[in-house]
Design a protein that fits this description.
The chain has 239 residues and is of the alpha/beta class. Helices cover 36% and strands 28% of the residues. A five-stranded mixed beta sheet has the order 1-2-4-3-12, covered by helices on one side. Strands 5-6-8-7 form a four-stranded mixed beta sheet, covered by helices on one side. Bound molecules: zinc ion.
């Protein structure tokens, strides 16, 4: 079965649309960033979908607001036994309290935190955030340079940042790229998808048909990578 897809921007909210052989239009709001996905019957066109989304905008905004204010699943106590994700794999945290500097090591399916006894949960979370950034800093150069060669462009500057609503950002004038630190918790396929997505903005600003075609050409399995990145929806509505 062939599926068509499109990106729409409705009042500043990016919407992924997939056209399928279904009866009803279906809207999902996905954690952690409030990504909005619409599954639409094939008989509808982009304008009709846009209209449907506008009508449901108050509901969509409510869901996104809830996501932002919901207690963060990531507000962890940083104690032995907790699950933490590293490159898409679940690791069991083991805390080893001992004098010296705070640092993390991977040991099989364990993420080991070495830290002095008196560090607070907040300090340990900050250390984990720093470690995730370091993971990304080490992984990104190889991915970026492979795609610089493939697409015959150069990325003059990139930055890792914590962002609430985006996995990545591209400034087309300066060609500066930003990547969300949360990507270090996802499978490396997801990081590559975001790198290619942001670099594709060098050629096309909007998430329109042309953008989708370029993505299909560069990274044919980008849809499944995107789904892997965005997980299951927090809220769904069918009508
Ligand atoms: Zn984009």
């Amino acid at each position: 079965m062939s599926t068509a897809s499109a990106y729409l921007s409705v009042r500043g909210i990016d919407i992924d649309v997939v056209y399928k052989d279904i009866k009803n239009l279906h809207i999902g709001v996905y954690p952690p960033l409030g990504r909005v996905r619409v599954a639409a019957p094939e008989r509808l066109d982009d304008d009709q979908v846009r209209l449907a989304v506008i009508q449901r905008l108050p509901w969509i905004k409510r869901q996104r607001e809830q996501l932002k204010t919901a207690p963060r699943q990531t507000a962890r106590e940083m104690i032995t036994g907790e699950s933490h994700y590293v490159w898409g794999l679940r690791k069991r945290l083991k805390v080893v309290e001992r004098p010296g500097h705070t640092h993390f090591e991977i040991d099989g399916d364990r993420l080991v935190l070495y830290t002095p006894r008196d560090t607070t949960a907040e300090q340990r979370r900050t250390a984990l955030d720093r470690w995730h950034r370091q993971q990304l800093r080490e992984a990104l150069p190889a991915v970026i340079s492979a795609w610089e060669q493939a697409l015959e462009v150069s990325v003059p500057k990139w930055t890792i940042r914590r962002m609430k609503t985006k996995w990545g950002l591209c400034n087309r004038e300066s060609r500066h790229l930003w990547f969300n630190v949360e990507l270090a918790k996802k499978h490396p396929d997801c990081l590559e998808y975001i790198v290619v997505h942001e670099m594709t903005h060098y050629f096309e600003r909007n998430h329109g048909v042309r953008f989708t075609k370029l993505m299909d050409k560069y990274l044919p399995d980008w849809r499944s990578r995107r789904d892997q990145l965005n997980g299951s929806p927090l809220a769904e509505e069918t009508w």
